[in-house]
Amino acid sequence: MWQLHQFPLCPFSRKVRLLLGEKGVGYELVRESPWVRRDEFLHLNPAGQTPVMVDADQTVLIDSQAIAEYFEETVEKSATINGTALQRAEIRRLTTWFDTQFYQDVTGPLLQERAIKRISQSAPPDGRVLRESMKAAVGHLDYTDYLLDHRNWMAGATLSLADLAAAAQISVVDYLGGIDWKGHEQTARWYRGLKSRPSFRPLLSERMEVIGPAPHYANVDF
Amino acid sequence: MWQLHQFPLCPFSRKVRLLLGEKGVGYELVRESPWVRRDEFLHLNPAGQTPVMVDADQTVLIDSQAIAEYFEETVEKSATINGTALQRAEIRRLTTWFDTQFYQDVTGPLLQERAIKRISQSAPPDGRVLRESMKAAVGHLDYTDYLLDHRNWMAGATLSLADLAAAAQISVVDYLGGIDWKGHEQTARWYRGLKSRPSFRPLLSERMEVIGPAPHYANVDF
Which residues of chain B have a pLDDT value below 70? Predict the structure, then answer.
C-alpha cells in the first residue's frame, strides 16, 4: 500500500488525498513536519516538501502535481484531467492558480502565522500578515464566484483536479478561520457540494495539535 | 500562428520557447512587461504572468506547464514527457523543481535585483539578496552535477522537459552573470550540449534593454 507523507493542514497533501479518494486508491498516512527539515525526509525529497508517496517496493513520488498526473495516467476511474487538450489546459492552469497564487497570497501566510509559528514556538503571529492574507482571501473568492457564475465547476462542466486543488486550499484556510463566507454564495454552494463527497470526509475529521478548527469547519451545511 | 506574450529574460517563456523549438511549432513574439501590470494583460491572464499564448482564433493558453502539457498532447514530434508513468513523474518532479525551487532561490531574486529594478528604476539592487542568490546557485548546480553523474540528462536517459526547464532558468542566470561555472563540469558539459541545439539559438541572440549579457553568454564553448 502507498504511504503518504504529510501533515494534517498541508494543502498539497489534501489535494492528493482528495484525488486518491475520488479514484479509490488506498493509502496510509505518515506524519511529517516539513518545517523541521528532518535529514531522512530531505533525503527522500530534496525540496523538503510534503506530499511524498512511497510504495511497498520503495517507488517514490514527489510533488502534488506530478503525483496527480501519475494517478491520472495509471488509474482510469474518475478522470480529473479530462476532455479536449484545451479543456485539459484550462484544468491545469487553474490547478496551478490555486497551488501557487492562492497558496502564496492566502494559505501559505495564514498557515505560517496561525499554525507553524505556534507549533514551532518561534514567534507570535504577525497581525499585518494575517490581515493581508484574509483580505487576499476575499479577492480570491470573488474570482471563484466569477468562475462559478459561468461554469458548474471551476474549470468547466465536470468536476476536475482544479476543484480538488481549490477545495484543498480553501479547506485549510477555513480550518484556520480565514474565510468570511458572507457574500460568496457561489463558492459556498460549490464548497458545500464538495464537502458532501466521500473523498472529503477524512479531511473534515482531521485535527492539528495546538490549533483547533473554526466552529463551522466540519459542517456540511455551514 | 501562435503569439507568445513574453519578455526576453522570462525563464518560463524560455522553457516554452525551447519546447516549441524542439517540436517545430511556429510562433511570433509579443513583448510584455508583466511587472507593469497592464490592464489588457491582466484581463488575458489574471495571474499577470508570462508566458501566455494566443492563437489566431483567440484560443488562450496560460502557465508554462499547462502550455507544455498542451503541446505534448497535441504535437507528437520530440516527446519531452516520455516513458513509463514513473519516468514521467520524475520528469514532472524535476520540472517543478526548476520552475519553483530554482526560480525562487536563484533566478527570481537575480532577475528582480539586476534587471527589473533597473528597468523600472524603482531602487538600487540589494547586495545581500544578490550574494544569497549567487550562493544558492552554487548549491543548485551541485545538485544538477549530482543528477548528471547518474544520468545522461536531468530526468533520465533521454532529453526531457526537465532539461528544457533547467536550461531556461540557467540561461537567464548566466545572462545576468550569476553563475560561476568553475567546479561544475558535469552541468557545464550538459549545458554546452543544449546550447548547440537549434532550439536554443534564438535565446542566445536575445538581448534585454538596459542590461547586456555576461561576456561568455552566447558562446557554445564557454
Answer: none
Cα B21–Cα B145–Cα B110 angle in degrees, nearest 5 = 65
Within a 10 A sphere around the Cβ of A198, how many other Cβ atoms? 9
CATH code assigned at B24:
3.40.30.10
**Are the Cβ atoms of A63 and B101 closer than 8 angstroms?**
no
Question: Same domain for B110 and B195?
Answer: yes
Residue B126, in any domain of the structure:
yes
Q: Identify the CA nearest to B204 among candidates B164, B179, B174, B160.
A: B174
Q: Which residue in chain A is spatially nearest to B69 when comparing CA positions? A: A89
Cell numbers for A60 = 517514490
Domain that holds residue B128: 85-205
The backbone torsions φ and ψ at residue B29, rounded to the nearest 5 degrees and listed phi first, read -90, 140
Whether A160 is in a domain gets the answer yes
pLDDT in tens, B146-159: 999 999 999 999 99
Alpha-carbon distance values, A60 to A13, A105, A110, B20, B102 (Å): 15, 30, 29, 30, 21
Cβ under 8 Å to A: B residues 46-105:
46-47, 59, 61-63, 65-67, 69-70, 73-74, 85-86, 88-90, 92-93, 96-97, 100-101
Q: Which residues of B touch A47 (CB under 8 A)?
A: 97, 101
Instruction: Dump pLDDT digits (tens) for A75-121.
Output: 999 999 999 999 999 999 999 999 999 999 999 999 999 999 998 88
Residue B7 in contact with residue B208, Cβ under 8 Å? yes
Q: Which residue has the cell 550569476?
A: B178
> Are B63 and B100 found together in one domain?
no
Same domain, yes or no, for A128 and A172?
A: yes
Asked whether residue A90 falls in the same domain as residue A195, the answer is yes
